[in-house]
Amino acid sequence: MRHRNSGRKLGRNSSHRTALFNNLVTALLTYGRIETTEAKAKELRGYADSTIQWSVDVVALLAKGDKVTTVERARLVHARRMARQTVKTKGALERLFSEIGPHFATRKGGYTRMLKTRNRKGDAAPMAFVELVGLNANPVLA
Fold this sequence. Notes:
Structural class: alpha+beta
Shape: globular
Oligomer: single chain
CATH architecture: Alpha-Beta Complex
Strand order of the largest sheet: 1-3-2
Mean pLDDT: 93
Order of helices and strands: HEHHHHEE
Low-confidence stretches: none
C-alpha cells in the first residue's frame, strides 16, 4: 500500500527522478514552455511553483538594490541558493530572479499551467505543454 507516499515514481529511482525534475524545471524557466508527458507535467507543476516561489518571496528586496540590510542580504542569498538546488544553469537562475519573480510578484501561486496536446507517435503516451502563465514562451537564453 502507498499510504502517505505522494508523487509519481515514473519508473525511476529517487536520484534519477530528482535529476529529471531539476532538468525539466530548468528547461521550463529557460524556454517558458516545454512539452512532456502528462504524468511528468502534473508532477512538474509542484516543483516549478515551489522554485518560482523562492524568487517571488524576495522581489521586494531585489527592488531595494544596494539599500538592503545585512539580514535582507542573507535572505536574498538564501533564496538564490535554495533555487540553485533545482535550477541548473546560470542563465535560467538569472531569468528566474530578474524576470519571472517580478512578473509573478502580485500572484499567489499557480505560476504554471498544463495544456494537454496529443498522443505521442510510437508509444501513444499522452503529451502536454507546461508553460509559465502570462509569460512569453521561447525567449531562448544564450
